[in-house]
């Protein structure tokens, strides 16, 4: 899937790659999303990968497409570490997803659902064909009786 280049209001251009696209669509569909829930669905390696992606590409200090709820986590270092608890699309982020809907790469769970729906549609057609054949055979049997 191709990257989408997005020019933020402040003029900087950001590359929205496939995993970032998955994240945007996931948050768009689910509303506010906790990082631990997002990781597997978007195909990220871990929460840290999602966190750094938001910070460097999608969050308030970057493209401003995702807004985050942050908290402090006490660490063994000299200062506390700030972590992202959850994320939601900004108004600009929602408009971006709506504008690029056909071009965006879907999260893993949606792609898998699409495959399952396609398979079920094929099975449904096969069942309809079998029902038609049974009806035809029953009609012939009645004629023969």
TrEMBL record:
This is Uncharacterized protein. It comes from Halosimplex aquaticum.
